[in-house]
Design a protein that fits this description.
The protein is α+β, with helices and mostly antiparallel strands. It is built from 6 helices and 6 strands; from the N terminus they run βββββααβαααα.
Length: about 160
């Protein structure tokens, strides 16, 4: 076992393991089985809360960005904890979406704009300009680069990395 830790204030355990035969790593989440939290979609449909959907959205938004999977897992853990802390059996998809937008805003400006543009269904370039203008007025999100940023930041390296 590589790592085992409590999440959601001790209500669950996240375990990271490595297969001794093939060396692949996998993560399990162990939790007390409770009444399953349901997400109410825009059209009124209800479906079970699915942390994997949040992770997929984050991974798409952070594609080719200097953000580790461990960082994204911590973001998903935090979002899931915050949703459960509400103490409700149902939560609207809008609440979950805004938690994701808020997390990305503090994590990476490009990922934030990517996710927000799809989530908020931008219809034209003026909406992109507005969100970028607001970000410029507020300064860089979070005040610090992500903890797993390895490369020195110069424009040439960053420009090249977005073309790969």
């Amino acid at each position: 076992m590589l790592d085992s830790r409590s999440i959601r204030e001790g209500d669950a355990i996240r375990r990271r393991r490595e297969c001794l035969q093939c060396g692949r790593r996998f993560t399990t989440h162990e939790e007390i089985e409770e009444t399953q939290l349901r997400v109410v979609k825009k059209d009124g449909r209800r479906e079970p809360f699915d942390r994997a959907k949040i992770m997929r959205g984050l991974m798409l938004a952070c594609h080719k960005r200097p953000i580790s999977i461990d960082t994204l897992e911590r973001v998903v853990d935090d979002i899931e904890r915050r949703v459960h802390e509400r103490g409700e059996r149902e939560v609207s998809a809008a609440v979950v979406g805004e938690l994701v937008v808020e997390a990305l805003r503090g994590l990476d400006p490009v990922a934030y704009v990517r996710f927000a543009s799809v989530y908020r269904e931008f219809q034209d370039a003026t909406q992109f300009r507005e969100i970028v203008d607001v970000m410029g007025e507020e300064g860089p999100p979070g005040g610090e680069p992500p903890e797993d940023e390895h490369a020195e930041s110069n424009g040439e390296e960053q420009a090249g990395s977005t073309r790969r």
